[in-house]
């Protein structure tokens, strides 16, 4: 395992398109559910415990089982009821694989993969293990939306990063839980849902003017 590879993969400056997505936060800000730093904290904790756990589990499984990417991708697709979120996930997966091909040698992966599955593919190519893939997925769940919060709400970036630092223990716990299930059958992997994210994504996709793609 290479800590340097993990840092490269989790770096927000990686040109994988993540900066164009708010992780569902833009819709929740527009709906008035998220207005300040405390509300952002609640949003991130809720997302981490649901969509974050699912993403971390599929990233870990994809890293551990390179011959099963198609079935894992199908399993994640069935856990993503929102067409808008499926589209956004595949767009981010495609962008991640494009960036990763400049860094490591990747095997053929076939169709556009969901971002967590693509993350597992890339983690495996970078010499990382399932837990590191899960950490990168959990971190991405919080950091992307937190960065969007600075732009959407005009929050102090120091305060937002202080929040991210306080969430590291939660990220580590979620990642450890996800990695422990890396060898589980696809149907037994986490399927935690976040209905407001799904509803918000569908509404957000209809907007003529928006700051983020999702």
UniProtKB/TrEMBL annotation:
Keywords: Chaperone, Cytoplasm, Nickel insertion. Belongs to the UreF family. This is Urease accessory protein UreF. Pfam families: UreF. UreD, UreF and UreG form a complex that acts as a GTP-hydrolysis-dependent molecular chaperone, activating the urease apoprotein by helping to assemble the nickel containing metallocenter of UreC. The UreE protein probably delivers the nickel. It is found in: Cytoplasm. InterPro entries: UreF, UreF_sf. PANTHER family: UREASE ACCESSORY PROTEIN F (PTHR33620). The keyword Magnesium does not apply. Signal peptide: none annotated. Required for maturation of urease via the functional incorporation of the urease nickel metallocenter. The keyword Chaperone applies.
